[in-house]
Amino acid sequence: MNLAEKKTLNAILYFVEKTNYCYKTKLFKLLYFWDFLNIKHHGESITGYTYVTFPKGPVPVELYNQITHEELPEEFRKSFSIVEYVDDDDKKSFRIIPKKGVKIDLEWLSKSEMESLEQIAYTYIDSSATQMSELTHLKNTPWSRTMEKLGLGKTIDYLLALDDQATISREEAEERITLQKELKSYGRA
Fold it and tell me: What's the confidence (pLDDT) of residue 187?
């Protein structure tokens, strides 16, 4: 398991433990906010996921496919189960249930990654998946800008996270994102 997978696994466990109603859709939004906040300030994705425009907002397509096709990495399967259920509106959903004895290991996270993980969990502790989807649909968010320009099923450019509050230049973020993609293609990120 590479470093990004270790960070992602433990972030999933953290979000499930520290927030309410953390099922698949909410989890996808929490990971999105975590990654895009890190891009905004450090120019790097933590999870390495590619986010795509879905009707309910951004979705980490790799994790979505792993869940849908029951192909989660072995360490993920050892750490939590995904239980399919039908909600009150007769919609199929998935609940993430940590396995007994599994502990969250946050030593893999940098100080800033840990701070943003805690901040996002605290901010969205009681938010529903619907509320979080609505937040991603607000005007000028990376999801809404991608939807307006490209439509459904399109990759959300990480650089759309950069705004007037970003603490990294666009050029530096571009360099870091390109390097991260290269490392990922070689199986090193």
Answer: 67
